[in-house]
Amino acid sequence: MAVNPAPRVALLGATGFVGSAVLRELAARPVSIRAVSRRPARIPDGARADVEVRAADLTEPGEMAAAVADADVVVLATLYSAATSTWRIEDGDSSAERVNVGLARDLVDALAARGAGPLPKVVFTGAASQVGPTDKEVLDGTEEDRPAGEYDRQKLAAERLLLDASARGVLCGTSLRLPTVFGYGPGSTARDRGIVSAMTRRALAGDPITMWHDGSVRRDLLYVEDLARAVVAGVDHTEALAGRHWLLGTGEGRRLGPVFQQVAVLVSDRTGKPPVPVVSVEPPAHAEAGDFASVTIDASAFRAATGWAPATPFSEALRRTVAHLADEAEREQRAEGGRP
Fold first, then answer.
1. Alpha-carbon span 200 to 236, nearest angstrom
2. How many CB atoms lie within 10 A of CB 285?
3. Is 212 helix (H, G, I), strand (E, B) or coil?
4. DSSP assignment, residue 242?
5. Which residues, 6+ apart, have CB-to-CB distance to 132 below 8 Å?
6. CA-to-CA distance for 100 and 94, rounded, in angstroms?
7. 236-273 b/e with 16+ CB inside 10 Å = b?
8. What are the tens digits of pLDDT across the range 286-310?
9. What is the distance between the alpha carbons of residues 18 and 11, in angstroms, rounded to a whole number?
10. How many CA atoms lie within 13 A of 148 on its CB side?
């Protein structure tokens, strides 16, 4: 009797903050993974999966087609990041557009060239902020998209390319829009440049935690390990999710002031020093309207379709994040002390 081969998953962006967490989650399964990124990905310890590491610049001609050749599933978790920023993009940034939109276009072209055969599944990691400014504090995915910033416009353009290709029968695709993702878990290999980890690093350095508002702004903070499980749930249920976007989140909007106070206390417990102050400062010129808007995500539609739910208590996720960053800071201090 013929044995069905393990499905091959092409994970694009395998060394990024989201992609590396997805790699760890997928590697625990008996699948075949092609982990694609500019620099070689590290195979997770104890991996059950057959992992092929492929270092490639996907913006180069022919690299996308090679990366997804014979893949049954493609997870597109690539993201342009300038050396001086996290996700903010200047209007008309062609380098960012080449990655954030161009790779989605290249992926569609590569899969369209395959011809007959089972439709490859595609899971795209978008952003909840793609909706743009809205009067709604609780988002459920039914809102009309009116992105204001360049990053959100580019993410929406990429999403539409993939969902249009799904509608045409080129692929079976869905988009998972991510909220504010944060943290570190066992085996984390990528740097979290988000607000929670950035403020934790400030506290560990003894600097005040700063806010561009009075601390009442709310964010739906999703722990990275729970996010990875959600993306893999998207892979498992792509057919049911195909053709539209889905919001991910915890369903709880947390006020950032108390979150940062919690960070300060956890850092104090680790260092034995008094908690650093949490202070309001004038926002910088590059601040956007979304920086001051509260967001809570109603992900009940995705949860009903897949059975996924966040599993890590927020306090535990925050504790793990502080512990990881404290360990990292101590290693860096030891390295500095050993230099001539």
1. 34
2. 5
3. coil
4. T
5. 145, 146, 147, 148, 152
6. 10
7. bbbeebbeebbbbbbeebbebbebbbbbbebbeebbee
8. 887 778 889 999 999 999 999 999 9
9. 11
10. 9
| Token pair listed for 133 | 């400014």
Q: Which two tokens stand for residue 44?
A: 């997770």
Strand partners, 219: 254
Give residue 83's pLDDT: 41
CA distances from 43 to 2, 187, 320 (A): 29, 10, 22
DSSP characters over 155-204: HHHHHHHHHHHHHTTS-EEEEEEE-EEE---TT--S---SHHHHHHHHHH
Maximum C-alpha span of the chain:
69
For the segment 197-245, what is each residue's pLDDT rounded down to a tens digit? 999 999 999 999 999 999 999 999 999 999 999 999 999 999 999 999 9
Average pLDDT, the chain: 93
pLDDT of residue 2: 39
- Identity of the amino acid at 34: R
Overall pTM > 0.85: yes
Measured from the Cβ of residue 323, the count of other Cβ atoms closer than 10 Å reads: 13
* Per-residue tokens: 96: 């960012």
For the record, the structure tokens of 45 come out as 């310890």
Angle between helix axes 150-167 and 102-112 (nearest 10 degrees) is: 10
